[in-house]
Design goal:
The chain contains six helices and five strands, in the order ββββαααααβα. The chain has 175 residues and is mainly α.
């Protein structure tokens, strides 16, 4: 795998780990452009959907639907210093991230298959930008994004088995 800049110092992609959402694992990043549905609106990335949720004002949220991920991140940060910023953000942000990540892999079958192909690898958003809530920086952090991704992967693994078993049962069913 080829990485550029500071990422080369901390990215680990081996048979047990995905540490750093770059290269072949960029699709796990919130900056991956794909359809995501949240609270009645369709966004072009999980980042845009997540950042829009920093406000309860639907007119403001609609502005995020066509934003590129990096622009939505800046716009979301800007909302934090306005009257539009929701008071309960700290309490709801984990659940909102869980919701948009789930929808990303529900709505986008190709991405779901790629997520499932990670097997049982540990997933962590290892980073150099000091995000210790969603990721890990310099060996420290909660890795909440990785936990959500692994939880969604586990859900789809289980769901796939249930669907496969139902299909097999229906094939063996005789009137």
């Amino acid at each position: 795998m080829i990485v550029f800049g500071k990422e080369r110092d901390y990215v680990v992609h081996d048979d047990k780990n995905i540490k750093g959402l770059f290269g072949d694992y960029r699709f796990l990043s919130n900056f991956e452009e794909c359809s995501v549905y949240f609270d009645g609106l369709l966004y072009n990335s999980t980042e845009a959907a997540y950042q829009s949720a920093k406000t309860l004002n639907m007119t403001k949220r609609k502005e995020f639907t066509s934003m590129r991920p990096n622009i939505s991140m800046k716009a979301g940060r800007a909302i934090e210093s306005t009257d539009f910023f929701r008071d309960d953000w700290k309490e709801v942000k984990y659940d909102i991230m869980s919701s948009v990540i789930f929808d990303k892999f529900y709505r986008n079958m190709e991405l779901r298959q790629k997520l499932l192909s990670t097997g049982n690898k540990y997933i962590e958003e290892t980073n150099h930008w000091s995000d210790v809530y969603w990721g890990v920086c310099n060996g420290k952090g909660k890795s909440n994004l990785g936990k959500i991704l692994m939880g969604v992967r586990d859900y789809w693994k289980l769901n796939e088995k249930i669907i496969d078993n139902q299909y097999k049962i229906s094939l063996n069913f005789e009137d």
